[in-house]
Amino acid sequence: RPVVTRPETQAIDMNSRSNTLADRDIVPSELTFGFLGLGMMGSTIVKDLIYTGHKVVVWNRTIDKCQPFVEAGAEVKDTPMDVVEAADIIFCCVSDPKGAKDLVFGNCGVLQLKDLRNKAYVEMSTVDPDTSLDIGEGIKQCNGRYLEAQIHGSRQEAADGMLIILAGGDRTVFEECHSCFKTIAKNTFFLGTDVGNACKVNLILQTIQAVSLVGLAEALALADRFSISLNDIIDIFDLTSMKSPLLLAKGKEMAKGDFNPQQPLSHMQRDLRLVLNMAENLDQSMPVTSITNEVFKHTKRLGYSEHDSSAVFVRSRF
Ligand code: NA7
Q1: Best probe residue, ligand 1, of 94, 102, 105, 156 (max atoms within 8 Å of C-beta)
Q2: Which of 38, 175, 224, 245 could pair with 60 as two cysteines, CB 3.0-4.6 Å apart?
Q3: How much is the pTM?
């Protein structure tokens, strides 16, 4: 069993900017935007929103993470409910469906405000369709408007302003978020007014990614057993029609043993769990995805939860 050290948590660099921001010609909305969750994704997004001139009010469970944003011009509130009071549109970007629901239905959560007239709530945390529907219902019952805006992409893509946004729900909210989405994403899709569709599309894309990564890891582990240079395999792979930016980048990380989290392994396994639950409800057979989930689960047990999902390579080498 390898000795596992936690990956270093990189402090957010408030001065770094994506190269693409200057070309985007962003006219910031005059609305006030709330932001719940200043993890790696949330921080990167909020930093760029402030830079492009948006008025932002933030909250994070670990309050210390808010400090750099106060210095950059954001207002900080004590609870999610306080953020909702102060903002017109509230984004949420936390780790998982449970966290996303806690922030809406929990103590000091969004729904404690009871009347959400003139407020809109945008769920950016990766959640399953049922969670999104529950959150959307809760918001609508209090007269608020709801949009799911799933963010597809790695932490580096977020830093580069190159996310893809998959949105569904209230179209007016989608339009009011235009300048925010233009700041953080290279493409934005509105997938209809039915809540849940955007979550499904996001999880389907994650399935393709997870299954591909496990295939790549197993193939490279076999090459390693033959003492064939992994760099040679990747160079040749680059010349084939199979190449993709993701697999090339992940292959290089596997060859170097550099698992700095771009997309944490725990998030990838969470997505597989959500996908398999959706499939179960439909009696849809997904044998390869099930095995992929087992591989990710085992790699988590080996201590690689907080590393990049490319750390599945470590397990494949056993
Ligand atoms: P991180 O960097 O792991 O950050 C997770 C964030 O979620 C962080 O702000 C956490 O607060 C917050 N969190 C987690 N659970 C809860 C609960 N129960 N209540 C309140 N806040 C919570 O993840 P990323 O930023 O990379 O990703 C966030 C989402 O974007 C994720 O769904 C991705 O799939 C897309 P903390 O700082 O630990 O107090």
Answers
A1: 94
A2: 38
A3: 0.95
